[in-house]
């Protein structure tokens, strides 16, 4: 289980996160919702160690990882699919997938067959450069790369952004299937309400660096959530 408790984060003098607390547990999907600029990505960066926090602590599987660098968190099974995908455009699909092996012991550095079961298109494109793929294919590659490291916490930052509807359905199927295995916790940041609603077990809604709504998905009141998503 992940527990981020009372997180305060600053960029210079700007107070970006204010006492934010969030949890994630195996077999469950926690969805983080909110408009652009409310601190969702900053929260993810704090969890994976890409941004230092000013106050609070981050616990993972019973241990305090607040001071651990990003690569050590990755070795402990925390994996991020960043907003915008951030694949390597000049590397092939296979080479992009192989970059996900970096946190693994040498004897476990292989691409699991499961990646190609989840995303069959990647097998047929192993020799193509990442930059030649469509946006939806790049998103599947980014998720596949994150899964290569066999994460126990998978964090996805707006995986539907700029993606065609057919691939959104494929990504939804994959995320639901990964959660159903019961051995992986998932945090999903999303603006697309219907996508998040259909996947969430728990949800939190952010506004101006704070959590303003949270609870079990079954108790979610759509009108209350939507007023924090509309511009």
What is the structure about, briefly put?
With 231 residues, the protein is α/β, with parallel strands linked by helices. It has 9 helices and 10 strands. The strands form 2 sheets. Strands 6-7-8-3-9-10 form a 6-stranded mixed beta sheet, with helices on both faces.
Any overview of this molecule?
This protein has about 230 residues and is an alpha/beta fold. It has a domain at about 1-85 and about 155-225: P-loop containing nucleotide triphosphate hydrolases (Rossmann fold), CATH 3.40.50.300. Helix content is about 30%, strand content about 25%. It has nine helices and ten strands. The protein has helices at about 40-50, 70-75, 95-100, 115-120, 120-125, 135-150, 165-180, 195-200, 220-225; strands spanning about 1-10, 15-25, 30-35, 55-60, 65, 80, 155, 185-190, 200-205, 210-215. The strands form two sheets. A six-stranded mixed beta sheet has the order 6-7-8-3-9-10, sandwiched between helices. The chain has a four-stranded antiparallel beta sheet with strand order 2-1-4-5, covered by helices on one side. Strand 4 (about 55-60) and strand 5 (about 65) form a beta hairpin. The protein is globular, with a radius of gyration of 17 Å. The two termini are about 35 Å apart. The mean pLDDT is about 95.
